[in-house]
Amino acid sequence: MDQGMLQQALTHGRRYVRYGKPAGYIPELASKNPSKLGIAVCDMKGNMSAVGDCEDKFTMQSISKVIALILALEQNGFDNVFCKVGLEPTGDAFNSTVRLDHLTDNKPFNPMINAGAIAVTSTIRGATLEERKKVCIEYARRLTGNPELDVDYEVFLSETETGFKNRAIIYLMRSNGIIEGNCEEHLELYFLLCSMACSCRDLAVFAATLANNGVSPITGEQLIQPRTVKLVRSLMVTCGMYDYSGEFAATVGLPSKSGVGGGIISCAIGQYGIATYGPSLDDKGNSIGGLKMLEYLSDSMDLNMF
Ligand code: DON
Question: For residue 258, how far is its CA from the centre of ligand 1 (angstroms)?
Fold first, then answer.
């Protein structure tokens, strides 16, 4: 993509970062510089354009829910995952606990909310917890094309020490049979996935792999089955941007997933993988500068899939 176009998107996004603030509920995230902003775009041939703070490292947070879902589906098949989690949007805020009443008898609504992602993560296989962790990190490395991608262990510890809501959610799901096995191990894996550190460039490659029907634009390898990619992109449209997913579909129109670390991935199907970073979040938990840059690019380049 034209570097000048990205620069214009960045200039547009910068006007808005002062209207938000970094996520406050995890101490390690609260200390991030809110004026940081970057964007990277990877096309289907692996050509990368990037501007702004595109090399900065940040944690994937909820963007990792997409990786967990892909891995769970590819390891277990659709039926063994969707017996534990639904496919419906909630309209709930990013930091809402969970609708506990719905968990008493039912599955969590979808894999993009914490309860759903925890249920999905519980199905990721491996002989030991260490092996499951290794499988997740290695898959994330292949999806991002970055063999050095790793976990930010300070954020991981911070999450582990403060994740009381997630602990409540998993034990409730354990009591109604959605979760099987060792809850503490599943939670550890969930926090590890959230704490994987990446840059916009890494995530642009991942988004491009999704936009390219599962084929890595870097290696040409089919990393995700096309059937899985379609399902995952559909959930990104309906549930990927928390309780802003409807308005985002209407204004930007790209399958996307946001994380409270400040990242957003977006797929212009068959054209580009886009990743933005800006830790200043709006009140819905989405990167405010990231949203504005995506709006700008979608409008200027007519990327809206609808
Ligand atoms: O579960 C958490 O608290 C976070 N690590 C998830 C991050 C996120 O981006 C938004 N979540 N609900």
Answer: 10
Indicate if 31 belongs to the active site: no
Helix (H, G, I), strand (E, B) or coil at 59: strand
pLDDT score recorded for residue 62: 96
**pLDDT single digits (tens) 84-108:** 999 999 878 776 666 655 665 578 9
- The minimum-distance atom of ligand 1 relative to the CA of 285 is 10
CA distance 144 to 240: 19
CA of 27 to the centre of ligand 1 (A): 13
Query: Following DSSP, what letter does each residue of 88-157 receive, concatenated?
Result: ------TT----HHHHHHS--S-TTSHHHHHHHHHT---SSHHHHHHHHHHHHHHHHT-TT-EE-HHHHH
Q: What per-residue confidence (pLDDT) applies to 24? A: 85
For the question of residue 35 being annotated catalytic, the response is: no
Atom 12 (ligand 1): residue with closest C-alpha? 94
What's the longest Cα–Cα distance across the chain? 54
Q: 204 pLDDT exceeds 90?
A: yes
Q: What is the CB < 6 Å shell around ligand 1?
A: 61-62, 94, 114, 159, 163, 166, 194, 259-260
Domains, in order of start, for the chain:
3-59+197-300 (3.40.710.10), 62-194 (3.40.710.10)
Distance CA 17, CA 128 (A): 43
